[in-house]
Amino acid sequence: MSDRIFGGFGLALAIFYIWAASTIKDSFMVDVVGPRAFPYIVGTIVALCSLYFILRPDDEPEWPHMREFAEIVFAAVVMLIYSWALPEFGFLISTVFATAYLTWRLGTQPLWSLVTGVGTSVSIYVVFHLILGLALAKGPLGF
Amino acid sequence: MEILSLLGDGFAIALTPQNLLLAVVGCFLGTLMGALPGLGPANGVAILIPIAFSLGLDPTGSLILLVSVYYGAMYGGRISSILLNIPGDEPAMMTCLDGYPMAQQGKAGEALSLSGVASFVGAFVATCGLVILAPQLVKIALLFGPAEYFVLFTVAFATLGGISSTNQAKSAFAAALGLGIAMIGSDSQTGSQRFTFDHIHLYDGIDFLIAIVGLFALSEVFIFLEHHRGGAVGSAGVTKVGRIMPDFGMIKRCIPSMARGTGLGFFSGVLPGAGASLGSFLAYSLEKQAVDRDGKTFGKGDPRGVAAPEAGNNAASGGALVPMLALGVPGSGTTAVLLAVLLQLNITPGPLLFQKSPDIVWGLIASLFLANFILLAMNIPLVGIFTRVLMVPTRILMPIVAMISFVGIYSITGSTFDVMLMVGFGVAGWVLRKLDVSLVPVILGILLGNQMEVNLRRAMTISDGDWFILVGSPLAIILWLIAIAGFVLPMLMGRRMKKRMEAARNEEEFVGD
């Protein structure tokens, strides 16, 4: 069933892709093939493979239970929030919380998670920013 | 002779103090990443690319750093195979079979040093093979026109699923997905905006580094979260390492095994769609056929069963560099990541690279030789340090991996949108992995998509719109035949190969995991 859903999704993607390719505007420069031909080919392959998934699905993969699934979704959300927070609060502060969340979910005690978060954040800051000179996100406080 | 003098120039570049230091650092980090399960050569190199790039190293320097990581990871994979029966990366799978029983018999130190020597032999011979074979391949590649290049890329995608692939439709889907993503942005030929939907962040296309780090490194973090695997890998009780210095008698007895493993490994590395995993698998199973037909000693701690696959694995990783450097077409996930390194540095591999910038090519090859010696020196006496790393619990390690991925991408793009995109790729990578869709073709599609299209369009311009130019030369027809064979063969024998590989794995009971 998963493969069928995946195939359906792939088919929708392919149709959307081919439609989007058909709206590509020509510019003043032209060549024989034009900017649309290759995307059409790619879209067709996606569509054909998706049809195959619908017709001949593989065995069902081992999907995680609801709890693990929620785990992934929450982690992704935390990472998205982290991405947004980087320029708002700066690298050091954001990273403490993001690391603490991840290490907590992987089984560290809550309090130790914060300690790990601080440790990771500070070490990355020292190694990558202070020693190696990489540009990290700067918050209003300058770090 | 010409090759030797070029190689000499290469050593002059590789032996500067800065590059030497980079090689040592790379080897160390690589071994570390190889040893840790969940951080293989591909994602190890992937998370370091943006960092090496934002450090502002010169192209040769960053290349030396990253290929040292690549070789190092290939060496390191065996450490957890032997000590814990958990392969540190996929090619090290076969080393478990005899390495772990050796460790159980209290011969972990011997197994480690023997496999270190075997890795060295495999990688060293393969690097010599690279020196000899790559310039020859370049001579052939110079005959390629745009049409042949287009077909060559098709060969790469058709064979990438590999001989053990069970569902070729999924490989094809993955490749098309990658190619589709590569189309986003302004068209290189005419400048038309494609699939950007007037979104300013998409005008330049999607940076392949974002996709690679997301798909490889972040999806791995999600896998760990899913399984709540937070404990130390080594908590199952790291076996005592015992004496570390190699037993020369044992090594001597294993020389024929290493030689066979190296030969097989190198070939499967050079061939498209084979790679290091198949190299070590072939080396192990044929070695078993050759010296232990009745299965008396193999699987019970036979040193030859450690030497052969390790030599094969490392020889294959050297061999895989031949098509990558000479043709610009990688044959495996890790070499695809190395291709990303080159593209990021604005170096297009292929025959022209050998002609235009021999300093980069030969500097790179010289540093491979150098990395080998450093790794041998590092791996035998210092193996204790690496085994201690296995004691760090993954609940601390994986968040660090995630954060370094973020640091890398943020430091090269400085854009929240791109970092979010990376998270998106991470989630997509997790879903695709669950559905058994290989991620390597996706990456390769993103990397090669534009070049593939450019070659198609150039060919069509030459032929004035006649599609038959794609089968217009004997060379192109041969390449098409390889592509078709590479795509169809796994359908016929993929299931059988996979079963055999899994059967070999399951002969032993897995203790960990």
TrEMBL record, chain B:
Keyword Membrane among record annotations: yes
Domain of life per record: Bacteria
Keywords: Membrane, Transmembrane, Transmembrane helix
Residues annotated as domain DUF112: 20-444
InterPro entries: DUF112_TM
Transmembrane segment boundaries: 20-39, 45-71, 111-134, 140-160, 172-188, 208-225, 262-284, 324-348, 360-386, 392-412, 419-447, 467-492
Pfam families per record: TctA
Name by which UniProt lists this protein: Putative tricarboxylic transport membrane protein
